[in-house]
Amino acid sequence: KQEVTQIPAALSVPEGENLVLNCSFTDSAIYNLQWFRQDPGKGLTSLLLIQSSQREQTSGRLNASLDKSSGRSTLYIAASQPGDSATYLCAAERSNQFYFGTGTSLTVIP
Amino acid sequence: GAGVSQSPRYKVAKRGQDVALRCDPISGHVSLFWYQQALGQGPEFLTYFQNEAQLDKSGLPSDRFFAERPEGSVSTLKIQRTQQEDSAVYLCASSLNGGPHYGYTFGSGTRLTVV
Fold it and tell me: What is the reported pLDDT for B98?
């Protein structure tokens, strides 16, 4: 069974700092890797989708990379803002199932 | 619709009560998924539909859980004789075609509390 791990579990940074969230997965036979944001009491908002043939995707201040061979993905957030405070989840997809990590809880301090 | 809609947003059930959770996917989305998210955990897969066909129900935790999508659009997740361990957020997601080239859109979830 696919195991997805996210490090760190929680992160607190001052506003304006660049930061990296890490995701690792045990089975490299994935179709894609997706990063989500979850605000307290809310559902999941898709941030970036990296297909298995791709190495990275960018959207605004966010950049996600994928290294299937090593079973790793990173989410880079540039110039963090208080509004970025949320839990960030990565999910590896295979056979119409997402395998989620437990998330990184990010707090950006004004 | 513009997004995936789930109702109710919150549900409190007494232990032993049956509950039904509804999901309205994005119009035209073929694939529909249910996930269960316990407090402090990532979502875990429950079941998957393509149109009205339930293609995978391997994640349903017990035979008290039942999902249907009779007309290939709205789906209902039913939990019979609820137990305290069923307390969680139940998330629904839909995808245009469920394949590896499409992303998924999640709803806001139904928070079920069993007392």
Answer: 63
